[in-house]
């Protein structure tokens, strides 16, 4: 997907419906996600995506769809080992009932197809340790042209009947719906199912027509995001493209459903079927087998029973994978896993073999010294420090499980988070960016971080919903950061920034919009093993939510010991001089280290101090343990009356003292600052406005007092 086409998502509203895009040579309709996800329905079901079977893709309404076939599928689940790897539901689709209800208004099973009735079939399935599912439609009739009765207006009656039969799953279609409001129609059946007291998984099948990702989580356990799949590469990959952008709306109890599996039906190659199964698992989609399992090929069973791939789909963290790069038909997806690792799919949508590549940083899992890779199809294992790539056949997918090794040591001293390796990073659109705004596509496509006109050289550019984790090891004290919606979000954007120490919320920005200035957050991290930076949508939909963590300063380790210290005896964090290096206890000689003289201002010499030349900038890490800084400030006598400078003292980036203009004709001036609780001390010398000439600036007998 090109950046230009991707940006159209932001300019559409819910009323515009679907957008036709050409992606990887395939024209697809992309629905626009426009509101935050609803809370998952509280029925205790589908904590991971449902797995099972549905007959429609292999039989439709043909005569072979009958009681014997359904019971044979249940037998196959056990005999073929499918039950053992997680497939649970044996579901039947349309055409199971007679075209008319009975005199009491009840649905009647077709006696030719189901001579012993539906309850008997459900009992047979249950006896195998499996669960049974049924089909209806939220309309006056179901979708088959023969016109079987739908559930509209009969919700309570039908739900009670199904519960009495032992139904465990309902697929509820959208045909012949009379134009009635979809939310109300689907809610009515959801309420009726819950009222039965029987746990019935509720699969909403309204084809994405009314953007169910915005509302269906409060009603059902899954919702179709697309029209019907067919057994072809173009149909399958087009549906994947439609479902991929909807990752923020899926989670335990409620899943995006890109329709059933076609694996084994014969319309695609085994390579394409492996891509199909890989992408559905990477997208945390329901895995409902759509082929006849009574006589499957060995290749079909090998795909459907790949426990490594199934484990990705069923991962208890419940995150849908996201696209981290897509260019020229080469698509990389990353899915966070509960063990702290990632699954990654490298998909080649082209008609010839290509190399598909990514890095651990792009996957959002940087921060370890090495990573174990397991190819989930070949089962080969390897390791990497960063790069992940593979030669991928036409229409193929290579799928890895990526597991980090030992984390890098925890940070010490003052650190900008934009320069540190994270443990994991998950972003709503595109990768998290270091020291750039979020560009929504490939890494590095953002711009300078800018909030309400203020630019920042350091920080993290994200897009809601995002979650970034850093390993602290219990050795950090605090985080100070400015937060806000980046100015590139010209048409809106509203987010909430939250900082967690381990599982404890320690700072919350409240709602921040594109019109707000930067807000400052300060978080106490003492004793924390982990730092989490989380951005959530502000309630108006995940759109234009370009959220910046600007100048995030992390303070770790111990500052100077208790007592009063000569600053020139302490190690600085950084030191930069205008001409030559900063000197300890010597004036600035402008060339090599140690070429200065005794510090002398107004004929008084000083044994201790720092010799600099404007413009200079020296930082010290205090670790929050110091209280006061004081020094003399003057232009060294070695330049005579020449030279003019300004001395400035900063505590945690805030100006705490300013000497005003000091020249070579002036004596030393006293300068000091309260640095209580500060993590960083900065000593800055600037030119006073007459050019950087003979600006030999001395910090005289600088002293730091610490607790």
TrEMBL record:
Q: Which intervals hold domain Glycosyl hydrolase family 98 putative carbohydrate-binding module?
A: 411-556, 561-706
Which controlled-vocabulary keywords does the entry list?
Disulfide bond, Glycosidase, Hydrolase, Signal
Q: What class of enzyme is it?
A: hydrolase
SUPFAM superfamilies found in the cross-reference section: (Trans)glycosidases, Galactose-binding domain-like, Glycosyl hydrolase domain
Q: Which reaction does it catalyse?
A: Hydrolysis of terminal, non-reducing alpha-D-galactose residues in alpha-D-galactosides, including galactose oligosaccharides, galactomannans and galactolipids
Entry EC number(s) = 3.2.1.22
The record's listing under Pfam families reads: Melibiase_2, Melibiase_C, NPCBM
Similarity field? Belongs to the glycosyl hydrolase 27 family.
This protein is called what? Alpha-galactosidase
Q: Which organism is it from?
A: Streptomyces xanthochromogenes
């Amino acid at each position: 997907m090109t950046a230009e086409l991707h940006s159209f998502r932001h300019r559409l509203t819910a009323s515009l419906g679907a957008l036709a895009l050409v992606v990887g040579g395939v024209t697809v309709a992309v629905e626009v996600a426009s509101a935050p996800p609803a809370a998952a329905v509280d029925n205790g079901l589908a904590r991971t995506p449902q797995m099972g079977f549905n007959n429609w893709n292999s039989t439709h309404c043909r005569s072979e769809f009958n009681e014997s076939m359904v019971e044979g599928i249940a037998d196959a689940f056990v005999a073929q080992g499918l039950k053992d790897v997680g497939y649970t539901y044996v579901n039947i689709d349309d055409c199971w009932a007679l075209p008319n209800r009975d005199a009491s208004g009840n649905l009647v099973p077709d006696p030719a197809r189901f001579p012993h009735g539906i309850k008997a079939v459900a009992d047979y399935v249950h006896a195998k340790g499996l669960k049974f599912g049924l089909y209806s439609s939220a309309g006056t009739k179901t979708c088959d042209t023969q016109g079987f009765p739908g559930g509209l207006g009969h919700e309570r009656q039908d739900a009670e009947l199904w519960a009495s039969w032992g139904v465990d799953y309902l697929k509820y279609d959208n045909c012949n719906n009379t134009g009635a409001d979809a939310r109300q129609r689907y809610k009515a059946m959801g309420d009726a199912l819950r009222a039965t007291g029987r746990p019935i998984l509720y699969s909403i099948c309204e084809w994405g027509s009314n953007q169910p990702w915005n509302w269906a989580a409060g009603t059902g356990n899954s919702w179709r995001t697309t029209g019907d799949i067919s057994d072809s590469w173009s149909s399958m990959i087009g549906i994947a493209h439609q479902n991929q952008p909807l990752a923020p709306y899926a989670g335990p109890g409620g899943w995006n459903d890109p329709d059933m599996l076609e694996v084994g039906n014969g319309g695609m190659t085994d390579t394409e079927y492996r891509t199909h199964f890989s992408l559905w698992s990477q997208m945390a989609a329901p895995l409902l087998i759509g082929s006849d399992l009574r006589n499957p090929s060995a290749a079909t069973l090998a795909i459907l029973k790949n426990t490594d791939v199934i484990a990705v789909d069923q991962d208890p963290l419940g995150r849908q994978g996201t696209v981290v790069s897509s260019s020229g038909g080469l698509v990389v997806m990353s899915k966070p896993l509960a063990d702290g690792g990632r699954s990654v799919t490298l998909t080649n949508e082209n008609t010839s073999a290509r190399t598909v590549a990514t890095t651990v940083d792009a996957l959002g899992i940087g921060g370890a010294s090495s990573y174990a890779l397991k190819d989930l199809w070949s089962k080969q294992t390897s390791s990497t420090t960063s790069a992940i790539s593979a030669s991928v056949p036409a229409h193929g997918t290579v799928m890895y499980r990526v597991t980090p090794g030992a984390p890098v040591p925890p940070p010490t001293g003052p650190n900008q988070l934009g320069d540190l390796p994270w443990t994991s990073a998950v972003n709503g659109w595109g990768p998290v960016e270091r020291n750039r705004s979020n560009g929504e596509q490939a890494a590095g496509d953002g711009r300078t971080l800018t909030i309400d006109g203020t630019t920042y050289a350091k920080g993290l550019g994200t897009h809601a919903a995002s979650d970034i984790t850093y390993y602290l090891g219990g050795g950090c004290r605090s985080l100070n950061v400015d937060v806000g919606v980046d100015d590139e979000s010209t048409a809106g954007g509203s987010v909430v920034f939250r900082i967690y120490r381990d599982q404890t919320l320690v700072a919350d920005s409240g709602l921040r919009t594109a019109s707000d200035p930067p807000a400052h957050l300060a978080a106490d991290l003492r004793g924390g093993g982990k730092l989490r930076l989380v951005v959530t949508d502000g309630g108006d939909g995940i759109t234009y939510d370009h959220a910046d963590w600007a100048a995030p300063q992390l303070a770790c380790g111990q500052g100077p010991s208790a007592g009063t210290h000569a600053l020139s005896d302490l190690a600085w964090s950084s030191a930069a001089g205008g001409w030559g290096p900063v000197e300890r206890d010597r004036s600035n000689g402008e060339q090599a280290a140690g070429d200065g003289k005794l510090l002398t201002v107004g004929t008084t010499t000083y044994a201790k101090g720092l010799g600099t030349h404007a413009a200079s900038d020296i930082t010290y890490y205090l670790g929050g343990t110091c209280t006061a800084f004081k020094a003399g400030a003057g232009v060294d006598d070695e330049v005579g009356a020449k030279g003019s400078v300004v001395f400035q003292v900063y505590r945690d980036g805030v100006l705490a003292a300013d000497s005003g203009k000091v020249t070579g004709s002036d004596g030393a001036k006293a300068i000091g600052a309260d640095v209580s609780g500060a993590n960083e001390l900065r000593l800055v010398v600037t030119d006073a406005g007459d050019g950087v000439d003979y600006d030999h600036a001395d910090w005289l007998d600088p002293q730091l007092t610490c607790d």
